[in-house]
Known about the structure:
The protein is mostly helical. It has 3 domains: 54-135, Multidrug-efflux Transporter Regulator, Chain: A, Domain 2, CATH 1.10.1660.10; 157-216, Multidrug-efflux Transporter Regulator, Chain: A, Domain 2 (Orthogonal Bundle), CATH 1.10.1660; 221-282. Helices cover 50% and strands 5% of the residues. The chain has 10 helices and 5 strands; from the N terminus they run H-H-E-E-H-H-H-E-H-H-E-E-H-H-H. The chain has helices at residues 54-61, 70-78, 96-112, 116-124, 127-136, 163-170, 174-182, 199-212, 222-243, 248-281; strands spanning 85-86, 92-93, 161-162, 189-191, 194-197. Strands 3-5-4 form a 3-stranded antiparallel sheet. It has a two-stranded antiparallel ribbon with strand order 1-2. Strand 1 (85-86) and strand 2 form a beta hairpin. Helix 3 crosses helix 5 and helix 9 (222-243) runs antiparallel to helix 10. It is globular and about 65 Å long.
Amino acid sequence: MEIEMPERIxxxxxxxxxxEGTPAPAPLAPSGGAEAEAVPEAAxxxxxxxxLTIGAVCKSLEREFPDISIxxxxxxxxxxxxxxxxxxxxxxLYAPGDVDRLRTILRLQRDxxxxxxxxxxxxxxxxxxxxxxxxxxxxxxxxxxxxxxxVAVRDKxxxxxxxxxxxxxxxxxxxxxxxxEDYGVIKGERREGQQYYDDTEKEIxxxxxxxxxxxxxxxxxxxxxxxxxxxxxxxxxxxxxxxxSRNPERRREAVEALENLAATASHLKYLLLVRDLRRITS
Length: 282
């Protein structure tokens, strides 16, 4: 009977020789070969976020808000709506969050005619954060919000629209536009035998076209026209001296104050309307 002898180390097949100069394989380590557990690489350091001066902020916003000015930004700071940090030399520096907040304030003024007190409440409720996240996600703003006008003096180079273009964009009938002109709601401007309208009049036509769907015509708009004329006269009386000043800075501040007053008056009128409509529905 043969006895099976254990295999000796010398009898095993030799391992294939490594080429000369090839380093021996290193033992597995956490940062080693494919079978080792992968360790995520450290993220590269992010560059510090650059802050902007008040002049740079004004320049970055002037395309969306043509009437923006350094004095208006300072005024909003005085109203405790924005709080940029200051350097040791007293210069204002605006972080991206400050610019987003300022953009939201300006949009609420322009698009919704909200007074600063209400805007402050909106910001405290987090509306600025929601607006910024929507823009970062690439969501487009409400196109109706871009139609609002400001009380700033119209630039001589501001665009004018032909009647045909206004009718196509607003969906209004030509007869409705003529009716608005007859009742003095809009005026237009005659050039080379054609009638032209500015942005504000175009949006008036758009709004009236929506009301016309419910049977509201030009003759029904006398109450709106009369109310607007009285409100404008009241606000002019309040700020007349400053608006007629020869000092450009004082006039600019007066226009900004006029916008705030107009927003407050518009909000008050809206609240009074809501109150009366609640009586109808109750």
